Amino acid sequence: MSENTDPKPNALWENIKVIIQALLLAVVIRTVLFQPFTIPSGSMMPTLLVGDYLFVNKFAYGYSKFSLPFSPNLFSGRILASEPKRGDIVVFRLPSDTSIDYIKRVVGLPGDRIQVTNGVLSINGVAVPKVEDGKFTSDYSKEPGIDIPVYRETFDNGVTFDTLDETPVSPGDNTREFIVPEGHYFMMGDNRDNSLDSRFTVGFVPAENLIGRASVIFFSLGNDTSFREVWKWPSNMRWDRIFKSVQ
Questions:
Q1: How many domains does the chain have?
Q2: Are 39 and 202 in contact (CB under 8 A)?
Q3: How far apart are the C-alpha atoms of 112 and 95, rounded to whole Å?
Q4: How far, in Å, CA of 27 to CA of 203, rounded?
């Protein structure tokens, strides 16, 4: 009786094993290291645009239950925790509904006093320098528009970035003073007049809700182009934003 030398079953099993290993590696990378994130709104313009696809560094601040798929309640707080810096752009779970991811810039650290007066941000009683830096026109049809004034702000730690100030009389241009509790952070969008953030219903964000720091843009489509509209990619790709670091 001759042996069965047909290699097909073994080759099929080897292919299955390779696929399983690749899937497990992808899950580990997404869970432990980097998570893809899509910018769904204009709240972080001009820094991040609708249609930007970026990687979020999950190792940057350590891990909480929100770092894991389905957010299992395996432990509380954070492990391997590291504090975000003022000016970091962070993806976090919305405190009022932890099924929703938000992305904003860290403005206030625990113990800080935050206030906006006549459109000028103050941290611990000191106004953040705000200098005119040109105009911004969006290729996103819904907001914010054409020739929006841009202002460059610089934090006390040297982090500098552009913000938009569409109107001097928006609801977020004059606020009460907020005192950031321990273990929480105050978040704001760079599109100051079109951002639902800690000035409003988002409130203070617990450290446990942080998912990671926005790291690099790996893909970007303009003009309201859907990722599924592959035939539109060549004419709507923002080539200058591919592999651009997020600051």
A1: 1
A2: no
A3: 19
A4: 32
Positive or negative: CA dihedral 89, 94, 98, 101? negative
Reported in sequence order, the residue ranges of 68-177 that DSSP labels E, i.e. its strands, are 89-94, 97-108, 113-117, 120-123, 126-127, 130-136, 148-154, 160-164
For 92, half-sphere exposure in the C-beta direction (CA atoms, 13 angstrom radius) is 28
**Which pLDDT belongs to residue 143?**
79
Q: Residue 185's domain spans which residues?
A: 8-245
Query: Each residue of 206-237: pLDDT tens digit?
Result: 999 999 999 999 999 999 999 999 999 999 99
Specify the CATH number for the domain of residue 159: 2.10.109.10
Q: Does any domain span residue 2?
A: no
Q: Residue 26: its pLDDT value, please?
A: 53
Residue predicted with more confidence, 234 or 70: 234
Per the structure block, which two tokens stand in for 7? 């290699």
CA–CA dist 186, 86 (Å, integer): 10
Q: Which residues are catalytic?
A: 43, 104
* Average pLDDT along the chain: 89
Q: What angle do CA 163, 245, 85 make, to 5 degrees?
A: 65
d(CA 51, CA 138): 12
